[in-house]
Amino acid sequence: MSTNPPAPGGADGGTTALPPDLTERLAAIRAAARANAPSREEVAAELAQLQSMLARVSRPGAVFNQNERATLAERARRLNHGAADRRGYEAGADQEPFDTWHQTVDLFWAAIDLAYPPGFWDAYATLTRSGDASGTDMLLRFHEDNPWFFRSGNVKERLLRAFKRVDLTAAQRASLQRAVRTAVDMHCGRELREYCRLVGRIDDLGLREALRQRLGSADARVARRAYWLLRALGDDIVLPEVFLAHLRTVVLAEVDRGFHRPARQRWRAFAECLRVARRHGDPRLQAALTARLDNPDPVRRRCARYALRMARQGPLLLHEVLDRLAVADLRRRFAAAGVAAGWIASVEGYPWESVEFEMLREVGRELRERGADGRGQLLDLLVHWCPDVRYHAATYVQEWDAGRAASVFETLEAAGGPGSLYARRALRHSTRKRPDSRWGQDLRRHYRAYGYI
């Protein structure tokens, strides 16, 4: 008698009684499972091979090889998942997919049992329950080998938590130091947090130097693990350019992708990179994110705004402030403030240190710090219709292109009018980077002389 569960939609296993949209979705799911799952022949061949390997390593007197048995357990897990996929899309065919899946389940748990060394669970229970360190050496060797298979990270995490309550000898501390190096170089999952809590007990100069060397590794995962361990040790970390390049790669890739609904693991890596960038500072990352504020895509522009808000050092900026950081908007604000400043200078009794002039200084500094994009906007403002805007733009341009700025000043001086005194004093004080506040008083007197006020 068949033990297959009845398929939805009727006793015949069809899907005729289902709604059309649900029928299409089920067909798409089965098609995807059929495309990704191994074939019947591949599952049978892998099952036979793993069963022979399992019989060989479980033979009495067999030498225990941690890496070999961990590999066997991981292959059994992948085979079990493949057989489960076949069971899903061949459910209405025959009983064979279910029988094969049950065999892979038995194989999987047998491989997991053999992945741990003999006597491991007795030493584990003794250490975690009573704090007896009699079997600590075998548990430390397990950490040095750093096997990776189903639920091994949970076991290593609990062991590291128990090691903090045990008085370790010098040899055992050296063994844990080797385990830390192996975990950084190979792989380390959820147990990394417990390594960070334990590393203070086994700290020495050799371990710190080894972690600093791995901080500049070409492998981003190795560098990340070394960073968190050094941070747990309270080390004065100086991030190399390779590490900062890893941060920029992760952050900019997520921003360009538009992390509307990111995967959980990707989001955690992205948020971690933003926290590190905020803690240590990365001007190149901030410049790249600022340039993306001009992206025409609103989703990517929102992502760049969020990342820049989290990556900038200092207090968090409001989203409204970041919205005004786009280069094109900065140019418009600079021009508007320049026009307003020219009008304000002609008004008697209006305070020279006004909001408009403060905005001119703030926006001008921001454009100057934007690199080539911001400087290009200032250069374009040299031909603005308003003489005051041309003057204020030239005061910034003279820092890297004194010739063009001097040409603007000479043109304004030759034109006469209220702005000629300002331009003449700018030519005379071309070495100054900012106009003096007394110039405004002189400019007011000049405006009165010409009859404007």
Task: Lay out the secondary structure.
Elements (H helix, E strand, L loop, with lengths): L19 H17 L3 H18 L8 H24 L6 H19 L5 H11 L5 H10 L6 H12 L6 H16 L6 H7 L6 H11 L4 H13 L8 H17 L6 H17 L2 H9 L6 H14 L7 H5 L3 H19 L9 H15 L2 H9 L6 H11 L4 H14 L3 H10 L9 H12 L4
Count of individual beta strands:
0
Radius of gyration: 34 Å
CATH class of the largest domain: Mainly Alpha
| SSE ordering | HHHHHHHHHHHHHHHHHHHHHHH
Q: Report low-confidence residues grouped into runs of 5 or more.
A: 1-16, 433-437
CATH topology (level 3) name of the largest domain: Serine Threonine Protein Phosphatase 5, Tetratricopeptide repeat
Euclidean distance between termini CA atoms: 106 Å
User: Which strand-content bin applies to the residues?
Assistant: under 5%
Mean pLDDT level? 78
Question: What is the overall shape?
Answer: elongated
Biggest pleated-sheet summary: none
Number of helices: 23
Domain count, please report it: 4
Looking at how many chains there are and whether they match, the oligomeric state comes to: single chain
- The CATH architecture assignment of the largest domain turns out to be Alpha Horseshoe
Helical proportion?
A: 55-70%
Structural class: mainly alpha
